[in-house]
Amino acid sequence: MADGTDTKSSNQMWGGRFASGPAAIMEEINASIGFDKKLFAQDIRGSIAHATMLAHQGIISTEDKDKIVHGLNTILSEIEAGNFEFSRSLEDIHMNVESRLAALIGPAAGRLHTARSRNDQVALDFRLWVKEELQKCEQALTGLIAAFLDRAEEHADTVMPGFTHLQTAQPVTFGHHCMAYVEMFGRDRSRVRHAIEHMDESPIGAAALAGTGFPIDRHMTAKALGFREPTRNSIDTVSDRDFAIEFLSIAAIAGMHLSRLAEEIVIWSTPQFGFVRLSDAFSTGSSIMPQKKNPDAAELVRAKTGRINGSLVALLTIMKGLPLAYSKDMQEDKEQVFDAAESLELAIAAMTGMVRDLTINAARMKAAAGSGYSTATDLADWLVREAGLPFRDAHHVTGRAVALAESKSCDLAELSLEDLQAIHPAITDKIFDVLTVEASVASRKSFGGTAPSEVRKQIAFWRARN
Ligand code: ARG
Q1: Distance 184 CA to ligand 1 centre (A)
Q2: Positions marked active-site
Q3: Tens digit of pLDDT for each residue in 338-372?
Q4: Is 168 exposed, middle or buried (0-12, 13-18, 19+ CB in 10 A)?
Q5: Which of 146, 149, 195, 464 is such that its CA lies 20 to 30 A from the CA of 329?
């Protein structure tokens, strides 16, 4: 009961000094089994490695170890088969597993927790989980990058308007635009790889916070669990959640990239832009307006990013006031990470699908690329190159040409040679060669520029890099 008069018996795992059980509300606020049961496989793997090490070091008998390992494997199959009853009064995954182990193998189960604490145990389980999640992210990002590389190759010559301030700036190619996202998701992937490096240390054996007097071998458990090495400071080990925060930061940055892409898809798929079309597979209709086709998947990717940001801020805030070492506040780390991981996985998968699904309207893109005086810089550059004007003067002359075209409601290329010569006498009819959008993009061959030849080089670079 909420008033603390609950007289349930005390906890079988740690209740030795307790006369009575927890208030119902205490059990409710304390229990993490509702979400940390997700860590069952990691918990069992960690326990098997720990028990094996204990036996190897002569801390427990081989016979007990064999019973423990057998029992743990049985529990693993029970949970996987959905035949395991999780109990809230056992608080968390660690005690649910250990209690079931006792039921299965008897007193030998009580030896498993020698030379460890739930503090290093949870740090281990969660690290293993986050590490696997990072590996999944690496794969998923590689898939997204591959999708973009294919679209970039297909559209290396497709001209579209490039924007700054969402105002038409200069013509670019759609392939070049796709490759911008390859750079962004490539950075995300290298952040993921670095994070795996950073966190690749085993916490088990730090015990409660001070290490242990038992002659354990932490290098052995680290190796068995696929970590590079054990962590080096037992206090830090149980109080550190940097690996979770790093995951969330990376997720937030990748989410920000995904959300910008989502926003572009939303804009590009409007009838006003009409640059791309999403197939029925990635759109929904409206229940009232029969003509509508909505880019819901893109919108949801944009929204998932908000959730991920929330999780990052939540965990940073949970951790910022904690004295060393472990505090129960840290139990609140998992839901944030689980939720963000699910959001990120979904967002990357949905985006990969959309990128492959998009139909590109090259004619619309090209028409838009030529509007808004997008080749004005090409005119100015021509005056510098062919007529020897300083760029600032060329900029001014071009500005007058734009103003004239605007007053005549026509494009730069539609101005007559006489009109242009009236603005500057050095202009010849050669100018018309650079005023087309194709000529404009083809000329931008600087390293990393939008010229199709350059974009193809960058595609080749990324294909080789993987
Ligand atoms: N359920 C706990 C968590 O997720 C496990 C560690 C509990 N440790 C303790 N000393 N109460 O953080």
Answers
A1: 37
A2: 165, 286
A3: 999 999 999 999 999 999 999 999 999 999 998 88
A4: middle
A5: 195
Beta bridge partners, 114, equal: none
Instruction: Name the token pair of 406.
Output: 């605007």
Taking the C-alpha atoms of residue 71 and residue 98, their distance in angstroms, rounded to an integer, is: 10
The protein residue with its alpha carbon nearest to ligand 1, atom 4, reads 331
Contacts for 91 with CB less than 8 Å, ≥ 6 apart = 11, 13, 30, 31, 32, 33
**Which positions ≥6 away from 191 have C-beta within 8 Å?**
250, 253, 254
pTM score, whole prediction: 0.92
Strands of 210-297, DSSP E? 229-230, 276-277
Burial label for 307, CB within 10 Å (0-12, 13-18, 19+), is: middle
- Specify whether the CB–CB gap between 131 and 219 falls below 8 A: no
- The amino acid that residue 5 corresponds to is T
For 49-103, what is each residue's pLDDT tens digit? 999 999 999 999 999 999 999 999 999 999 999 999 999 999 999 999 999 999 9
Which amino acid, residue 199? M
Structure tokens at 275: 């640059």
119 lines ligand 1 (CB under 6 A): yes
Give the pLDDT score at 8: 60
Report the alpha-carbon distance of residue 205 to residue 161 in Å, rounded. 59
